[in-house]
Amino acid sequence: MRLVPRWALLSSGCAPVLWAGGWTIAGLLEGSGYDPVTQTISVLAAYGAPGFWVMTGALVALGACHLLTAWGLRPAALAGRVALGAGGVAALVVALLPAPSSGGSLRHGSVTVTGFTLLAVWPVLAADRRAATPWGLRPAPSLVVTALMGVGAAWFWVEMQGHGAVGVAERIVTSVQSLWPFVVVASCARHRDHEELPT
After folding, report:
1. Where are the alpha helices (DSSP H) in 97-165?
2. Domain residue spans in the chain?
3. For residues 79 and 180, what is the distance between their CA atoms, to the nearest angstrom?
4. How far apart are CA 199 and CA 197, in angstroms?
5. What separation, in Å, do the N-terminal and C-terminal C-alpha atoms of the chain show?
6. Judging by beta carbons within 10 Å of its beta carbon (0-12, 13-18, 19+), is residue 163 exposed, middle or buried?
7. pLDDT in tens, 113-146
8. Residue 57: C-alpha distances to residues 3, 26, 50, 173 (Å)
9. Which uninterrupted H or E stretch holds 19?
10. What gap in Å lies between CA 127 and CA 121, rounded to an integer?
11. Which of 16, 68, 118, 151 could form an SS bridge with 178, CB 3.0 to 4.6 Å?
12. Alpha-carbon distance 46 to 158, whole Å?
C-alpha cells in the first residue's frame, strides 16, 4: 500500500503553480499602477480590482489543494494534517472576505494571519520521530521550515512598518508555504517507491 495516493501529488503540486500564476496574472491585469515590490497580494484581490476574479479563483484553488493534500497525507501526524486543512479553509475564507479597495479590513487581516500561522506550524505538527519516517516528515526539516516561515513573517512585518519591499516578502513566504506540502508528499511517495525497489 502506498504511503500517499497519487492524487495527493497532483493536489500538492498544483498549489504553488496556481498560487503564483494567480498573482502573476492578476498583477498583469492591474497594469503599471500596481507595484509588486511594495504592494501586497491582497491589493490584487480587492473589490473592483481588475484581477479580482483571478485572485479569488487562485485563493479558492489554493484552499482546495491544501484540503485535498491534508486528506491524502496519511503518514503525517493528525495535528499537522488538521492544521494544513485548516490553512486551506482559511484561504477559502480569505476569498470570501477580500480586502476593500482602499484602507484595511480587520476581518480580512485576521483570517489572513490565522491562515498564515496554520500553514507555518503544520510542518512541526505533522512531524514523526520514527526512524522509517519519510524525509519531509522528520523533525529536523520540519522545524527548519517552520522557523524559516517565522523569519519570513518577521521580515514581512518589518517591511510593512517601513513601507518597504512588502510585496517581495509576502510572495516569497507564501510561495514557500504553498510549495512545502508538495515537498512532503513527494518525499512520502519517493520513500515508498524506494522501499519497493528490489535489493
Report:
1. 106-126, 139-162
2. 6-194
3. 16
4. 6
5. 19
6. exposed
7. 999 999 999 999 999 988 788 999 999 999 999 9
8. 30, 11, 13, 20
9. helix 6-30
10. 10
11. 16
12. 23
